[in-house]
Protein: Branched-chain amino acid ABC transporter ATP-binding protein/permease
Organism: Gryllotalpicola koreensis
Amino acid sequence: MTSPATALNRSRWSRLTSYGLLALVVAYLAGTAGVAHGSGYTQSLILQAAIFGMLAVSLDLVAGMTGLYSLGHAGLFALGAYATTLLNQAGWNMFLLLPVSIVGVGVIGAILGMLSLRVSGLYFAIMTFIFTLVVNVLLSDLKFTGGLNGIAGPIFPDLPAGLQFFGSGLVWVVALLLLITLVVVWGMRSSAMYPVLLAIRDAEPFAAANGVRTAATKVGLFALSAGIAGMAGWAFSFLGYISPGQFTWTFSVNILVMVIFGGINTRLGPLIGAAFVSAFPVVIQIDPLVQELIFGLIFLLVIVFFPGGVVGLVSRAWRRFTTSPHHPPAPAGASAAEPVGLGELPTDGAVARTSTSRPDDYVLECSAITFGYVRGTKALEDVELRVRRGTVHGLIGPNGSGKSTLVNLISGALKPDSGTITVRGDHIERLGAAARPARGIMRTFQTAVLVKELPVRENVTIGLYHRTRNIAARSLIWPLLPGSLREHREMRAASDAALRDAGLPAGWGGARVADVPHGVEQLTQLAAARVGRPDILILDEPLAGLSVGEVEQVADIVNELRDQGVTVIIVEHQTHFIFSVCDDVTVIAAGQLVTSGAATEVRENERVREVYLGQ
Ligand SMILES: Nc1ncnc2c1ncn2[C@@H]1O[C@H](COP(=O)(O)OP(=O)(O)OP(=O)(O)O)[C@@H](O)[C@H]1O
């Protein structure tokens, strides 16, 4: 329950935030008014910086949040500027051309984004670089684009007679477009979608296992980013002449420089970078060659010594100044670093469990599953797995026997070459990983794949993705939605509860995953899977690297889940653990089923001792 003091603090804080926001809006309006009445020279400088700001923010949206380092943004920017100019010459209304530029360039961005599904990293950068190159060559060679000389952009109309005291209309329009860009992109950063986007960047299998359609999200985000670049192009066309020389591949690199210099994946970074790149040649008026050299040197120094850019540098200094060296208490048993012995097949002490479910009450059935990673070899051959509802089912076998492969087939990361997988009788073997959480299947990974730079709690909220309605679409206007703050608070509260249930003492929720011990990472992914309220939870080697205390904790969690009616499938090498917590056990070796049945029977099976322990 929230204490009155906390509620008071929260209301005081939200009042302060509102005042702060109001002050910012007033300052923004005052600044815009100042520029709108400024000299033509000042206006063109500030307008260019603002337009570059939009471009840098649009690039940061894909480069910072999803790791797509595009060098195609100069090409997209050019398409917006040229389409506006040429279509306006053809008689189109210039204001109608704003949505046309956003949507048209957005569609081209979607196509580029689709290519990102096939190539990534350096190859994606090269591909988008070629896109800018091709656009530039076309603009230079085609007659109707004015060739190398370019064409004069449309002239932005003055404000109507009654509104002329506002000054330049173009300044107000660009200020509004920049504001919209910031509301959308910053809003997305503070929405529940933000951790999901970083998961697509850093931990794609984790994102997919939580129901995120990673491919569609990447394409959508690239289309949005391209749409903003098209919008920036629309505004740029009003600044005078446009020519291919303004949209070369070096300009694409410059946009990336703005993002990296200011601070990639930060709110203010791209704006600071854009301001720096725009102001530098104006402030440092020396020989152009020396100017370029100094610019390059500054950028090199930033990259080498402050890879987080200006914002990273300032926030690091701020953190050092404000944070105390506090470390949350260790989870139960974490100090007992002694690992549990592996491969002991217990002959006594492991209590065989009797489930209340009927013998044929199978929630998950895998029949005749065959799968090979490479043609001609089979990682699994004709494997059968039947899991009774509400039971804990162990999957064991020697290294390389195909356990993880089977788990990946059930969770949709892989598709079988033949055979069927059904959940409550429905076939799911052809569904992708992202569709499985909706069927009640959640999973953890042998090696935790999480977003290292985010706090533990934010990682757990990713587990709520498939249960949160239209989260991707709503993230575009998240801060403007009336219930979004409350919803976000509820998501964080649910994540905190899941962390508590996983046995993590309060305090770990706020720690960055990069700073937490291995055991906490494992419990974090367990909490993320659990917060999604699965019917079937698959734990792939959940005990790897855990201490004795943490192993006991996982055993408690598994027993608790069974009591709640969740079906749990555990892949594990620690057979002592398996035979103490599992109702049923399936053993596979060399991709084939050895035996399956009640834990007590499997434990006594001679063939199991032979293949599993080599006895
Ligand atoms: N990505 C891959 N490409 C090719 N072969 C693979 C791949 N992943 C696994 N294999 C092979 O498939 C077989 C089954 O591997 P799998 O990882 O499923 O076994 P496992 O029982 O989970 O092993 P472990 O207990 O060591 O994790 C092994 O021969 C392995 O070398």
About this structure: Residues 373, 379, 397, 399-405 surround adenosine-5'-triphosphate (CB under 6 Å). Residues 333-357 have pLDDT under 50 and may be disordered. The domain at 347-440+534-615 is CATH 3.40.50.300 (Rossmann fold). The chain has three domains: 15-313, 347-440+534-615, 454-533.
